[in-house]
Specification:
The protein is mainly alpha-helical. It contains eleven helices and three strands, in the order H-E-H-H-E-E-H-H-H-H-H-H-H-H.
Length: 216
């Protein structure tokens, strides 16, 4: 049986990811406890757990808000994502099977369809599923766990930076070329595609892009 703290954690996380609570918005522990018909203590514990995951910012003993990242923090998270995405992809290209790559194509399609429909939550969630699947195919459990942690924060960043259906579609148009490069073992092309995929969104440092051979 799930504890009250776990229930509160899952409820809060769902509200954050479904944009019922937006980045920068105050979290009312009293309101959450009333919704779930539980005391404030497990809600308080859930808020602290979300803060440890970087999804909530504690402002005082009884005050917290949904995390809202600065431009510097977004850039830093993007740098971590870049390195981990490339390592995941290189390993996935080596260890991946035809069935794995077909599954990636399905996830890419789900993401594109959600983007076309303007379904922000589903589009962001599907994008995360796509990239985490690559990490899973890599076969490196620790890498996957680090990727999962980073992509939780990226979910919030994508919410805060969402602008339009057109821009959303543009952001994901590298998915299919990435799959093709994975399938063909084209590592240099794979690195370049991943850099192109995220460099503008996260304002990746040109030095990092140069390190991965994408400078023109």
């Amino acid at each position: 049986m799930r504890s009250q703290s776990s229930i509160a954690y899952e409820q809060l996380k769902e509200q954050i990811f479904h944009m019922d609570l937006l980045p920068g918005e105050k979290i009312s522990e009293l309101q959450i406890s009333s919704q779930l018909n539980i005391s404030r203590t497990p809600v308080h514990d859930a808020v602290r757990r979300l803060a440890a995951e970087g999804l909530v910012t504690i402002q005082s003993k009884r005050s917290a808000v949904v995390a809202k990242f600065t431009d510097k923090e977004i850039k830093d998270i993007g740098s971590i994502r870049l390195v981990q995405d490339i390592l995941s992809a290189e390993l996935a290209s080596y260890y991946g099977s035809a069935a794995d790559f077909e599954q990636l194509e399905h996830l890419a399609t789900v993401c594109e369809e959600a983007a076309e429909q303007g379904n922000i939550y589903k589009r962001i969630h599907a994008d995360g599923d796509f990239h985490l699947k690559i990490a899973e195919i890599s076969g490196n459990t620790n890498l996957y766990q680090h990727q999962y942690s980073v992509y939780q924060q990226i979910h919030l960043i994508q919410i805060s930076k969402y602008t339009s259906i057109e821009d959303s579609l543009l952001q994901i148009h590298h998915h299919l070329p990435i799959i093709e490069a994975l399938r063909n073992g084209e590592i240099a092309k794979l690195r370049k595609l991943i850099c192109m995929h995220i460099q503008d969104f996260f304002q990746i440092d040109p030095y990092l892009l140069k390190c991965y051979g994408t400078d023109e």
